[in-house]
Design brief:
- This protein has 351 residues and is mainly alpha-helical.
- The protein folds into 2 domains: 40 residues, no CATH class; 288 residues, Ribonucleotide Reductase, subunit A (Orthogonal Bundle), CATH 1.10.620.20.
- The protein is built from 12 helices and no strands.
- The chain is globular.
- The protein starts with 41 loop residues before the first helix and ends in a 23-residue tail after the last helix.
- The N terminus and C terminus are likely disordered.
Amino acid sequence: MTCCSGQPSESHDLNRKVNRDDKRLLNCSAVDVNQLWPLKYEWAWEHYINGCANNWMPSEVSMQRDVELWKSSQLSAGERLLIMRNLGFFSTGESLVGNNIVLAIFRHITNPEARQYLLRQAFEEAVHTHTFHYICESLGLDGREVFNMYREVDAIAGKDAFVMSLTRQILAPDFSTATLEGIQDFIRNLVGFYVIMEGIFFYSGFVMILSLHRRNLMTGIGEQFQYILRDETIHLNFGIDLINTIKEENSTVWTASLQDQLTAMVRDAVEYEIRYAQDCLPTGVLGLNAGLFRDYVQYIADRRMQRIGLPKAYNSQNPFPWMSETIDLTKEKNFFETRVTEYQTGGTLAW
């Protein structure tokens, strides 16, 4: 039998009763990491089930109307820039999140139901990256231009470099969560990828693309972004539960210094995102402008910080209340009746 630290356990009794209280998120040394039952963290399993219920593939979404519109002269230069910038950021942003899950987070989580969700999330990140390949292929875009924007567009490169810097330390061969400092570094990584990357950086892009969708423009891309938004909402909720539970189980790590560092990280991220909005909307389009996104990014940053126990920093108002309605859509058809947005499994399979 192998214990959660990866070392052989003292007990070789395969019938030994598993105590759910031993199944800690970090540094478990009492229970086999593969022992799913009994569940300790019902929230982790619930997020896994919710993720499965939103199962989808990009190739199921028709891009015909998008192709016709993209080839026409109906889209303005500003609308085309907005679309290209968002494809450029999301195309590699999703893969960065997937890499962090597989190479960094999964390695240090020692609870099986949390690992079960991480496996599901890693698959979803692969689907999201597939989505942007599918969009580029459908529209006849230069995929090299889109997928290389994280190197060549400063507003995108800055955001990606910011979150990647939070992974380097925990990827070190000698990194461990056995110390207070190690757990604090791990929490910084989780905040960087769940709260900032998925909870802040992705959301302004959702607003931009779904604003087009609400006006019956690029509805195929918009529908795929709706699915991605649902996935990311579950990712965010899982990440927040993960952070808060690690805090509860390791109460000494949540120091005033760490809280100040995390607040400073979020503030830096907000400025990166405002610069990104300015790059996507240099002159404004569809009633959107960089000023509105300043308010929106500050508004969602406050919400994310409150959920992990940090005080609000901005007190800005939400200029896009319709986004909440979009997140809450379940069985309704989407804005322009292109297809039912709740995925149906099982009966639709053809072998």
